[in-house]
Amino acid sequence: MAGRDTPATTAARNAGVSFTVHEYEHDAKAQSYGMEAAEALGLDPARVFKTLVADLDGTLTVCIVPVAHELDLRSLGKRARMADTAKAERTTGYVAGGISPLGQRRALPTLVDDSALEQETVFVSAGRRGLEIELAPADLVALTKAEVKPVRR
After folding, report:
1. 34 confidence band (pLDDT: 50, 70, 90)
2. Which of the two ends of the chain, N or C, has the fewest CB atoms closer than 10 A to its terminal CB?
3. Residue 84 gets which letter from DSSP?
4. CB-based contacts of 91: which residues, under 8 Å, 6+ apart?
5. Is the dihedral of CA 84, 141, 70, 5 positive or negative?
6. Rounded to the nearest 10 degrees, what angle do helices 7-15 and 137-144 cross at?
7. CA-based Rg of the chain, rounded to a whole angstrom?
């Protein structure tokens, strides 16, 4: 996996979970990084999840939702909003569009949309644009110590 190793893949490997890395040519003009991944890899968008960082009353929280859906901020609380991009990048150690829920510089509280559990495997960013990691939803939840609940709309 030379050249494709990231903190996310290292975290998965160190945890001993089974995973596969998928690489595709990232188009800098893509409007949606998540949908770009689904299309480039020929996947059902229900299996591909985007990693969003929300600000819940000053606490950054990672929200993992299917790429074809939006994050339902109302489900997170009245004052929930999307986190400042620069702050999310500094805190996670990743760049926007490549933020992985795994191997973050500082692990953040994490919410995984309950639809992930309907899939045999899910795809999330492996830590850079054009790189996805496929793993079992239960492993994603365990590695991120996530709470599973509906957070999509």
Report:
1. confident
2. N
3. P
4. 53, 60, 104, 105, 106, 108
5. positive
6. 100
7. 14
Half-sphere exposure of 49 (CA within 13 A, CB side): 34
Tens of pLDDT, residue by residue over 82-123, are 999 999 999 999 999 999 999 999 999 999 999 999 999 999
Residues sharing a CB contact under 8 Å with residue 116, sequence separation 6 or more, in sequence order: 49, 64, 66, 122, 137, 140, 141, 148
Distance linking the first and last C-alpha atoms of the chain: 36
Residue length of the chain: 153
The span from the CA of 83 to the CA of 16, in Å, is: 31
What are the backbone angles phi and psi of residue 8, rounded to the nearest 5°? -65, -45
- pTM exceeding 0.85: yes
